[in-house]
Design brief:
By secondary structure, the protein is of the alpha/beta class. It folds into two domains: about 400 residues, ANL, N-terminal domain (Rossmann fold, 3-Layer(aba) Sandwich), CATH 3.40.50.12780; about 120 residues, GMP Synthetase, Chain A, domain 3 (2-Layer Sandwich), CATH 3.30.300. About 25% of the residues lie in helices and about 25% in strands. The protein contains 14 helices and 26 strands. The strands form six sheets. The protein has an eight-stranded mixed β-sheet with strand order 2-1-10-9-11-12-13-14. A five-stranded antiparallel β-sheet has the order 15-20-19-17-16, with no helix packed on it. It has a four-stranded parallel β-sheet with strand order 4-3-5-6, with helices on one face. The protein starts with 9 loop residues before the first helix and ends in a 20-residue tail after the last strand.
């Protein structure tokens, strides 16, 4: 294994790994003839990756890019994303991944907020990016197509004076939904990213990794922390391979897992019911998977999945601000209880009430975490970009406030109860209710709006918008719902638009007009079953082409 300490940086660590594991695979893309790139699959060795990274570094340096620059990548889940990130980080450049599902206003926000200097983009996504740049109020970054990177990269507006990194240099800025609407930019250092990979690679127990023999199948997006940092640097530090597919597809899961010879797989809660609902597959037991790592499996499906497919689902807890994860990797596990492990010597945990007072064992409270009393923020995110107030508020009292509700038993075992307030978790994506509310509120028909989560049997949660119209009841509720859906769908990533919409005469508020979401529906009532609830889920597609169908309303 490659040794790392608090003096290590990503570039020099990668080059040490490339020297030791030169002939082993670092990245693999499974075959898929429907994919527009590497349809027959590809293996990229550590040696091949080193040569590619050094070539990319020279191109960046010759164009004047280095420490202090921020470069955005809009490359979907292609392996080039990780190769460019390694090259950039080796030079002290900060990587800002962009979500290919984002609409122009969302792209414009990130480009402005992060003050991006350059965007490396797939030519097929150029039009989408240009719309975002046009909508940007302040920042107009340079653009280069990855297909023409060596010849098309224009010189940096301000040439870098340094082309190296320090351990605390920003390696990435990842955007995570916050409860106030606009996403927050989490600044992640070289030390953070290496510590995350080291924790995963050395956690041991039921999640023990061998050296230069594991193949980690991760279908999650590279603009999230899981695939781009947590699993990738775990693989790199031990000479293992990350199998990087384009996205999760239930119809291809077992074929890709089998053909890629995966030994570890990553999942989200939504993956479990989708796989369980499929008919028997010839490869569902004829695989080489030893364990799966993920979060959010429903308790009633946990044991059923393990019994059918023959490997454990090992639950973890982490977030963009701290992905040096807590993991339920010690036997005996408590399957089907939402248990996700115990605190570690370098990741201390408290469970508190609203006054930050410790809760008794077994009682629900918010989870607070820190590295230690002496160095509480070590290996955590560096800050929320341009938001010192939010950073310090999250760290009030010397503990990071996760917003997640858990219990802690007398043995130290943690169990997940609920997600942070005003965040909707749909198919692994965090959706800020406030962001959707703000957009709906801007529509001229809308008087008041409350957005909340409802249960979804496939995607874990779905977006429900409760709306009061300005001019009284709608003459055609279905047509009005479609109009409001399109308003969201055209301006936000497809998954953020309401899957359910309910037109109501009033929304409960306090004396100070603060919306009382918990009073909108009676306790124990499933809102989806109510008269007048309009189901819009069929319209939530990545393809933004105009829709012609009318949504059905529940009778």
């Amino acid at each position: 294994m490659i040794a790392v300490d608090d003096r290590s940086t990503l570039g020099e660590t990668f080059f040490r790994a490339a020297h030791v594991y030169a002939d082993h695979s670092l990245l693999a893309v499974p075959a898929n003839i429907a994919r527009s790139y590497h349809p027959t699959g590809v293996e990229i060795s550590y040696g091949d990756a080193e040569r590619a990274v050094r070539s990319l570094m020279k191109i960046y340096v010759d164009a004047g890019y280095g420490r202090g620059h921020r470069v955005a990548l809009l490359l979907e889940n292609r392996p080039e994303h990780l190769l460019h990130k390694l090259a950039m980080n080796a030079l002290g450049i900060c990587c800002v991944p962009l979500n290919p599902d984002h609409r122009e206003s969302e792209l414009a926000y990130v480009l402005d907020h992060a003050r991006v200097d350059l965007v490396v983009v797939l030519s097929g996504l150029d039009a989408q990016l240009r719309q975002g740049i046009a909508a940007s109020a302040h920042n107009k970054p340079a653009v280069v197509h990855i297909e023409n990177f060596s010849a098309g990269l224009t010189p940096a507006h301000c040439k870098a004076t340094l082309t190296s990194a320090e351990p605390d240099s920003p390696a990435s800025i990842l955007y995570t939904s916050g409860t106030t609407g606009r996403p927050k930019g989490c600044v992640l250092s070289h030390s953070y990213e290496l510590a995350a990979g080291f924790r995963y690679a050395t956690g041991g127990g039921l999640a023990t990794f061998g050296e230069a023999c594991e193949r980690i199948y991760n279908p999650l997006p590279l603009f999230h922390v899981n695939a781009s940092i947590f699993s990738f640097y775990c693989a790199m530090l031990k000479g293992n391979c990350q199998v990087q597919t384009d996205r999760f597809q239930v119809s291809r899961w077992w074929t890709e897992v089998y053909e890629s010879k995966a030994t570890v797989v990553h999942y989200l809660g939504v993956v479990v019911p989708m796989l369980l609902s499929q008919p028997a597959h010839p490869h569902e037991r004829a695989h080489t998977v030893r364990f799966a790592i993920g979060a959010g499996v429903e308790p009633q499906r946990h044991a059923a999945f393990e019994d059918r497919f023959g490997f454990p689902l090992i639950e973890i807890w982490g977030m963009t601000e701290i992905v040096r994860a807590i993991i339920d990797n010690e036997a005996p596990r408590e399957v089907g209880t939402r248990a996700f492990g115990r605190a570690q010597p370098d990741l201390q945990v408290r469970v508190v009430n609203d006054n930050d007072e410790d809760m008794p064992h077994g009682q629900e409270g918010e989870m607070l975490v820190r590295h230690s009393a002496a160095t509480p923020r070590k290996h955590f995110f560096s800050a929320y970009l341009n938001d010192e107030t939010a950073t310090e508020n999250a760290w009030r009292g010397g503990w990071f406030h996760t917003g997640d509700i858990v219990t802690l038993d007398a043995t130290g075992l943690l169990r997940f109860i609920d997600r942070r307030k005003n965040i909707i978790r749909r198919s692994g994506e965090n959706i800020a209710a406030a962001e959707v509310e703000a957009l709906l509120q801007s529509h001229p028909l809308v008087e008041n709006v409350a957005v909340l989560a409802v249960k979804d049997e496939v995607r874990e949660e779905e977006v429900l918008a409760c709306i009061v119209l300005k001019n009284g009841p709608a003459i055609d509720p279905a047509a009005t719902a479609k109009l409001l859906f399109d308003h969201c769908h055209n301006k936000l990533a497809y998954y953020k638009a309401p899957g359910w919409l309910w037109l109501t005469q009033s929304i409960p508020t306090t004396a100070t007009q603060k919306i009382q979401k918990h009073q909108i529906f009676e306790p124990g009532v499933d809102p989806r079953t109510l008269a007048g609830m309009i189901d819009l889920r069929a319209f939530k597609k990545r393809d933004p082409r105009p829709m012609t169908r009318q949504p059905p309303a529940n009778p």
